[in-house]
Amino acid sequence: MSEVIVVTSGKGGVGKTTTSANVGTGLAAMGKRVVLIDTDIGLRNLDVVMGLENRIVYNLVDVVEGKCRIKQALIKDKRHPNLYLMPSAQTKDKTAVNPEQMVLMVNQLREQFDYIILDCPAGIEQGFKNAIAGADRALVVTTPEVSAIRDADRIIGILEANNFSKIDLIINRLKYEMVKRGDMMSAADVVDILAIGLIGIVPDDENVVIATNQGEPLVGNGTLAGKAYQNICYRVTGKEIPFMEFEKGVSFWTRVSGIFHKN
Amino acid sequence: MRIKNFFIRRKSREVAKDRLKILLISDRVNCSPEMMEMIKTDIAKVISKYMKIDAESMEIQISKTDSKGRDKTPTLYANIPILDLHKNIN
């Protein structure tokens, strides 16, 4: 049975595309048949993060407009034979596709893939509506900052209003040192505020920038972020993976000092 | 006093959390902070007709979840400290 997952956040720049690339690649590495769809028409980026920008011939809008078959627009990944990318159009705008067309295309892809991952554009306009239309579940990405959390809350409200039953939270770019100092909200704080299930915490890691520079997703390699994405992939498939010690964001010292700072 | 403030400076994490909690209450019910303020002023006016209240420390909020975090119909909570219960009604 296939599952359509939309990766969304509301706010831009919190890591939707990086998350899509890594979750898609991680699932493919586990032997699943995966297709990543970039739904950000006019501002495509998933192709560069995946390092597949030189292979684009047809795109999402071409498929929707009937200029090519779905298969012609799918780019096979360099690393995993069961991973494909459907790039977005760079020259069109968001109104080139409507939600009905999106649902139609996604449903056709269900036959060939286990996971269909939709990388959603920022905002809550047409592009967002297109991306959520065909999805079964959502991964909401946020960073531990007030602006990102506020937007995530709005997105969660819209997803709930659209009867999404599976909405999971990914907290990205958590800086443990800052949390320890009391200068950044902890994962527990964010979960407390947003009140949805947590599926992963990705620490702030320079390796993410390096990986993006190289067009190589870092899921599953030895880096902290790579491990965190790997764990998210396992949890997406339904495996219970305990959160890594650092993911809790509670150091020995905060535990000790907590005794003196009971509020 | 300054030195004391320096030592008990509130962590920005706590400030962020508190600000978000208040902000999201109004976001979630689609009700602006200005409108909440107007509701608050009007409630204070009405109650003041019958008893003496502390309008300064009065708080109102709309909640969509109960104490156990479950969804319910949005409910307006008002916390109005009464200074004198038996104000003479003119």
UniProtKB/TrEMBL annotation, chain A:
SUPFAM superfamilies, per the entry: P-loop containing nucleoside triphosphate hydrolases (SSF52540)
Pfam families the record matches: AAA_31
Keywords noted in UniProt: ATP-binding, Cell cycle, Cell division, Nucleotide-binding, Septation
CDD domains recorded: MinD
Name of the protein in question: Septum site-determining protein MinD
Residue sites binding ATP per the record: 11-18
Keyword Nucleotide-binding on entry: yes
Gene encoding the protein: minD
GO MF annotation list: ATP binding; ATP hydrolysis activity
InterPro entries according to UniProt: AAA_dom, MinD, MinD_FleN, P-loop_NTPase, ParA/MinD_ATPase
GO cellular component, one term: cytosol
Protein family (similarity comment): Belongs to the ParA family. MinD subfamily.
Function of the protein: ATPase required for the correct placement of the division site. Cell division inhibitors MinC and MinD act in concert to form an inhibitor capable of blocking formation of the polar Z ring septums. Rapidly oscillates between the poles of the cell to destabilize FtsZ filaments that have formed before they mature into polar Z rings.
Domain AAA: 3-157
BP-aspect Gene Ontology terms: division septum assembly; negative regulation of cell division
Gene3D superfamilies: P-loop containing nucleotide triphosphate hydrolases
From TrEMBL, chain B:
An individual GO BP term: regulation of division septum assembly
UniProt superkingdom: Bacteria
Keywords, ordered alphabetically: Cell cycle, Cell division
Gene3D superfamilies in the cross-refs: Cell division topological specificity factor MinE
Family matches, as SUPFAM superfamilies: Cell division protein MinE topological specificity domain
Family matches, as NCBIfam families: minE
Function: Prevents the cell division inhibition by proteins MinC and MinD at internal division sites while permitting inhibition at polar sites. This ensures cell division at the proper site by restricting the formation of a division septum at the midpoint of the long axis of the cell.
This protein's name: Cell division topological specificity factor
Organism: Parablautia intestinalis
Encoding gene (name): minE
